[in-house]
Amino acid sequence: MIVMIFFEFMQMELEAIIGLEIHAQISSKTKIFSSSSADYFGKEPNINIDPICLGMPGQLPVLNEEALVKGVRAAMALNCHINKYSHFDRKNYFYPDLPKGYQISQFEFPISEKGFLEIPSGTGKKKIGITRLHLEEDAGKLSHFQGGTLIDFNRAGVGLMEIVSEPDIRSPEEAVAYARAIQKILRYTDASDADMEKGMMRFDASVSLRPVGESKLYARAEIKNLNSFRSLEIAIRYEIERQKKMWEEGNCPAQNTTVGYDDTKGITYFMRNKEGSDEYRYFPEPDLPPIILEDDFIDKLKASMPELPDQKYAKYISEFGLSEAEALFLIEDRDLAFYYDKVVALSEDVKKSNSLVLSLLVGMLKKENIAILDVKITPENMAKLIVMVNAGGISMNIAKGEVFEDMFVSGKDPAVIVEEKGLKSMNSSEDLEKICKQVMIDNSQSVLDYQGGKENAFKALIGQVMKATRGQANPQLANEILLNLLKQK
To answer: I need a surface site. Which of 176, 182, 249, 479 has the fewest CB within 10 A?
Structure first.
């Protein structure tokens, strides 16, 4: 009988059931319940602290309105229902980096719930349910070393959003796609910088297996504090394989557990049996009043929502004519997308915006290894450059050459550069006609080739005209004059 059961486990097809808790720091200037600076990264330890975040007796927390607004904006972008009534709770657990001995969080009445996010999958779009987005405070940071542990409380009290998914994820790849999509949305709504290198976004991944076709949820392992997409993918993949071996051995997990992740070895390891919510002894935070959101407040936030990544993606393809690859590339970088949109809006020329921004400027960003925010060329000046070309003030070659190069280094207005370097287009018909006649004399064979039906000969001749004028000939006017002269031959 035992042998038969074991054989059945061996033949069983299993599927992964994955849920994510994403902790993202809110990009507010001060902490969520006090006036201390929330800018802790790289700072001297324990300088951004105060009696409130240290849990000193008699100190009362006050909710940061900016943190509340950004949390609600993020929830709206994740299609969550915004609760008009919510309140904070005390989540009791004793840990060295929580000086109060409890964390102010939300449990029974969160700020939002019942959302969803669509991610790409092999069969098209897949909807991942979001149980809730709630607000809470971060803990301090522990640094372990041989012989002891150091605590830095600069991070204690920094505002957090915890985004809890439904167990709708079925693979490590889907988990990463979901996490990346969340990161983009948090950045587009300016709710969080979500910089994982600075610890601003962290993941807890819950993993369990079950036989394909079953709806029952089995015991899960929660992998704590994953801080990169790579770690998220590798840890989930390892945990799936670990549990699969247990199933194959007829010993499927029976107890929810908390596991850690060893980034060096790429493995998970047992930490403790997982606590239930009862063990945290949640109760309403007595020092903070409930949050009551009025309809006007919610409506104003909805009206101020920015264009989100999926909306931009659709616009770039349907309205701007970009390829899928170009649209995906643009939406990956919020700041680059905003820059590009502004150039298009001001210049009213999608084609030249693509040429100057997506090709020339992005190429320079990669070459110099800098971000769009560090570029000296403003969107306004990039748009001016395009307008100058369209007005015949300079040629596109001049714009993409000397003018762009100077703008990239100096950040100057293109009109100033063109004036300083004497790069204005030649728009004199009389002067251009003289140059075209001389080019035809100097390149008589090309003239004969053109008259013999070789279209490329015209390109060679116009190229010589541009060379003779150092690229300053108005291209359209030069073409017209040269064609007329050739017809007269």
So the answer is: 249
Q: Which amino acid is at 456?
A: N
**One-character DSSP codes across 12-39:** --EEEEEEEEEEEE---SB-SSSSSBS-
Task: State the Cα–Cα distance between residues 450 and 467, nearest whole angstrom.
Answer: 19
Residue 5: per-residue pLDDT: 45
Q: In the chain, what's the furthest Cα-to-Cα distance?
A: 102
Please report, for the chain, how many H helices and E strands are present, in that order: 18, 16
For 4, residues 6+ apart whose C-beta sits below 8 A from its C-beta are none
- Give the tens place of pLDDT for each residue, 105-116: 999 999 999 999
Please, which residues bridge with residue 17 across strands? 208
CA distances from 225 to 16, 233, 240, 259, 269 (A): 20, 13, 18, 10, 13
Cβ contacts of 328-337, under 8 Å, gap ≥ 24: 329/358, 330/358, 331/184, 332/184, 333/372, 334/184, 334/187, 334/188, 335/371, 335/372, 335/373, 336/362, 336/372, 337/312
Integer Cα distance of 236 and 234 in angstroms: 6
Which domains, from first to last, does the chain contain?
Answer: 2-295 (no CATH), 307-421 (no CATH), 429-488 (1.10.10.410)
Distance CA 386, CA 399 (A): 8
Whole-number percent of the chain with pLDDT over 70: 96
Q: What is the pLDDT of residues 328-340, one digit of tens each?
A: 999 999 999 999 9
Q: How many CB atoms lie within 10 A of CB 23?
A: 18
Separation between Cα atoms, residue 239 and residue 44, nearest integer Å: 37
Cα radius of gyration rounded to whole Å, the chain: 31
Return phi, psi of residue 30, to 5°.
-120, 170
- pLDDT, tens only, 239-291: 999 999 999 998 888 899 999 999 999 999 999 887 777 788 999 999 999 99
Q: Which of 154, 205, 257, 170 is nearest to 23 (CA)?
A: 205
Instruction: For residue 72, give the nearest of 116, 115, 112 by alpha carbon.
Output: 112
Residues near 60 by beta carbon (within 8 Å), at least 6 away in sequence: 52, 287
Cβ atoms of residues 207 and 226 within 8 Å = no
What's the CA gap between 27 and 195, in Å, rounded?
A: 11
Strands 257-262 and 221-226: parallel
Q: How far apart are the first and last CA of the chain?
A: 101
pLDDT band at 487 (very low <50, low <70, confident <90, very high): confident
Question: Measured between alpha carbons, how far is 74 from 201 in angstroms, rounded to an integer?
Answer: 14
Segment 164-181 mean pLDDT = 97
- Its pTM stands at 0.84
